[in-house]
Specification:
- There is one protein chain.
- The chain has 55 residues and is an all-alpha fold.
- The protein has one domain.
- Helix content is 78%, strand content 0%.
- The protein is built from two helices and no strands.
Length: 55
């Protein structure tokens, strides 16, 4: 039983690691896009509303 618990814990840590990795990737891409296109808010989902305001 104890061994099973340890294995479960290890897989949970791995899941958390992958989630963190995804978050870091999104943040890195966000900063790259922001520095390349400061007016475009790709990852905020406000891309459409931003363009509507300019019209």
């Amino acid at each position: 039983m104890q061994k099973f618990e340890n294995e479960k814990l290890a897989s949970n840590n791995l899941d958390g690691f992958y989630i963190l990795l995804k978050i870091y990737k999104i943040l890195i891409y966000h900063f790259i896009f922001q520095s390349s296109f400061p007016n475009a808010q790709f990852l905020n989902g406000s891309f459409t509303s931003e363009s509507e305001h300019r019209v």
